[in-house]
């Protein structure tokens, strides 16, 4: 008789009883994620807060101390740089000699010194010792040769140095009475750079409104520039700036110079003659187009031009003499141009 095999019964395995969990409150294991029981004691938590309250002020004081030291170092470095700048040109001859081999950094250092309000006496003596003449000679010589980009940058910086010198009344008056100086500045207009021409226009505008002598010298310099460069009229280079410039500030400087020349011209007949030249060269349409820039300062100059034009027309008609052939001719030109 066949016997049926019955596999032995497997007793269920009971998990071993671990004393770890039972005794965890007394002796936690090394791998347990629970902190030691002692960290939950009220006195240890208070000690933790006291430690944080003690550490934070130290960190804050350290940060404050580092900030103070950094500020002190910056002030010390600034004073050292100022001292170095003052020592760069220890003599006037050394400052003047830079124009024989001018670099951008030398020009920047000179400009900083000229703009320094504490260097007013130094600036005056620098000009008297030949600094102004050397600066203008550099402008004239550089503008007469083929220019590179570096030359254009140096001329722009040199014009800013000249403007800084003209901030002093004595030097401004000296320059406004010297045709050679103004002629040297006007020659820079030969450079086809709107930025450089803007600097020149600003200087000429200041000279023009300063005095009648300055106005006469500026007009004479522009006439000489017209003759040398064979331009159609004395305002050609100014009108070119208004027409070709893309930025409002460049147009503004040119229109401001026109307004200063016209307002400084005393004779109404001469003013109308200048306006006829401008109108025949398309100044009206050029100014109307410039309004599209929507620049407040530029629009002020444009409005000034048209308002003065209207005032000149009314003044001429009030003093019109029908028995004077010249007045009749100007009246006809006035009607044609306007």
TrEMBL record:
GO biological process: actin cytoskeleton organization
Residue numbers spanned by region Disordered: 1-36
Cited InterPro entries: ARM-like, ARM-type_fold, FH3_dom, GBD/FH3_dom, GTPase-bd
Record's compositionally biased regions (Polar residues): 15-32
Residue span, GBD/FH3 domain: 33-338
SMART domains in alphabetical order: Drf_GBD (SM01140)
Domain of life: Eukaryota
Any GO MF annotation of the entry: actin binding
Signal sequence, renumbered to the chain: none
UniProt-listed Pfam families: Drf_FH3, Drf_GBD
PROSITE patterns: GBD_FH3
Protein name: GBD/FH3 domain-containing protein
Taxonomic source organism: Rotaria socialis
Upper classification of the organism: Eukaryota, Metazoa, Spiralia, Gnathifera, Rotifera
